Amino acid sequence: MREVLFAAAFAVVSAVGFVALPATAFASETDDVARCAAALDANGVAAADDYRAKFVKSKGAQVRKVELLLIPNAGGESIEAICEIKKGEVISAALKA
Questions:
Q1: How far apart are CA 29 and CA 57, in angstroms?
Q2: Can you tell me the distance from the alpha carbon of 49 to that of 17, in angstroms, rounded to the nearest whole number?
Q3: Which DSSP state fits 86?
Q4: What tens digit of pLDDT does each residue of 12-70 get?
Q5: Which of 54, 64, 68, 69 is nearest to 85 (CA)?
Q6: Of the candidates 32, 21, 79, 40, which has an alpha carbon nearest to the alpha carbon of residue 57?
Q7: Which of 19, 31, 80, 82 lies 20 to 30 angstroms, CA to CA, from 53?
Protein backbone atom coordinates (compact mmCIF):
# COMPACT_ATOMS: atom_id res chain seq x y z
CA MET A 1 0.00 0.00 0.00
CA ARG A 2 2.81 2.37 0.90
CA GLU A 3 4.50 1.81 -2.47
CA VAL A 4 1.27 2.56 -4.33
CA LEU A 5 0.81 5.87 -2.49
CA PHE A 6 4.44 6.81 -3.13
CA ALA A 7 4.08 6.02 -6.85
CA ALA A 8 0.87 8.06 -7.08
CA ALA A 9 2.45 11.04 -5.31
CA PHE A 10 5.47 10.84 -7.61
CA ALA A 11 3.20 10.79 -10.68
CA VAL A 12 1.32 13.89 -9.51
CA VAL A 13 4.53 15.81 -8.75
CA SER A 14 6.02 14.82 -12.11
CA ALA A 15 2.90 15.95 -13.99
CA VAL A 16 2.83 19.32 -12.22
CA GLY A 17 6.52 19.87 -12.93
CA PHE A 18 6.10 18.96 -16.58
CA VAL A 19 3.22 21.41 -17.04
CA ALA A 20 5.14 24.25 -15.34
CA LEU A 21 8.28 23.76 -17.45
CA PRO A 22 7.10 25.38 -20.71
CA ALA A 23 5.88 28.51 -18.93
CA THR A 24 9.31 28.99 -17.36
CA ALA A 25 11.07 28.53 -20.69
CA PHE A 26 8.73 30.99 -22.39
CA ALA A 27 9.37 33.62 -19.73
CA SER A 28 13.09 33.28 -20.30
CA GLU A 29 12.67 33.75 -24.07
CA THR A 30 10.56 36.86 -23.51
CA ASP A 31 13.21 38.31 -21.20
CA ASP A 32 15.95 37.51 -23.72
CA VAL A 33 14.07 39.25 -26.54
CA ALA A 34 13.56 42.36 -24.40
CA ARG A 35 17.22 42.43 -23.36
CA CYS A 36 18.43 42.01 -26.94
CA ALA A 37 16.08 44.66 -28.32
CA ALA A 38 17.23 47.11 -25.64
CA ALA A 39 20.90 46.38 -26.40
CA LEU A 40 20.35 46.86 -30.14
CA ASP A 41 18.61 50.17 -29.42
CA ALA A 42 21.38 51.33 -27.06
CA ASN A 43 24.07 50.46 -29.65
CA GLY A 44 22.21 52.43 -32.32
CA VAL A 45 21.73 49.33 -34.47
CA ALA A 46 17.91 49.26 -34.45
CA ALA A 47 15.72 51.86 -32.75
CA ALA A 48 13.14 50.30 -30.46
CA ASP A 49 10.47 52.69 -31.79
CA ASP A 50 11.04 51.57 -35.39
CA TYR A 51 11.10 47.77 -34.96
CA ARG A 52 9.19 44.99 -33.22
CA ALA A 53 11.45 42.15 -32.05
CA LYS A 54 10.31 38.55 -32.59
CA PHE A 55 12.03 35.49 -31.09
CA VAL A 56 13.42 33.04 -33.68
CA LYS A 57 15.61 30.58 -31.76
CA SER A 58 18.09 30.21 -28.95
CA LYS A 59 20.94 27.83 -28.23
CA GLY A 60 23.60 27.44 -25.60
CA ALA A 61 23.65 27.19 -21.84
CA GLN A 62 26.16 29.46 -20.12
CA VAL A 63 26.35 31.81 -23.09
CA ARG A 64 23.07 31.81 -24.99
CA LYS A 65 22.93 32.87 -28.63
CA VAL A 66 19.51 34.36 -29.27
CA GLU A 67 18.33 35.04 -32.80
CA LEU A 68 15.69 37.71 -33.38
CA LEU A 69 13.73 38.97 -36.32
CA LEU A 70 13.32 42.75 -36.27
CA ILE A 71 10.07 43.62 -38.04
CA PRO A 72 9.74 47.27 -39.10
CA ASN A 73 6.64 49.04 -37.77
CA ALA A 74 6.30 51.09 -40.98
CA GLY A 75 6.57 48.05 -43.27
CA GLY A 76 9.48 46.85 -45.36
CA GLU A 77 12.14 44.20 -45.05
CA SER A 78 12.72 42.43 -41.74
CA ILE A 79 16.23 42.30 -40.29
CA GLU A 80 17.84 39.36 -38.50
CA ALA A 81 19.87 40.02 -35.35
CA ILE A 82 21.94 37.91 -32.96
CA CYS A 83 22.62 38.56 -29.28
CA GLU A 84 24.82 36.70 -26.84
CA ILE A 85 23.63 36.64 -23.24
CA LYS A 86 25.66 35.52 -20.25
CA LYS A 87 24.23 35.51 -16.72
CA GLY A 88 21.30 37.68 -17.78
CA GLU A 89 23.43 40.38 -19.43
CA VAL A 90 23.87 41.00 -23.13
CA ILE A 91 27.56 40.69 -24.01
CA SER A 92 27.13 41.30 -27.76
CA ALA A 93 24.31 42.43 -30.02
CA ALA A 94 24.62 42.82 -33.79
CA LEU A 95 22.83 42.34 -37.06
CA LYS A 96 23.18 38.92 -38.63
CA ALA A 97 25.42 38.96 -41.68
A1: 9
A2: 38
A3: E
A4: 444 444 444 444 455 578 888 999 999 999 999 888 899 999 999 999 888 999 999 99
A5: 64
A6: 32
A7: 19
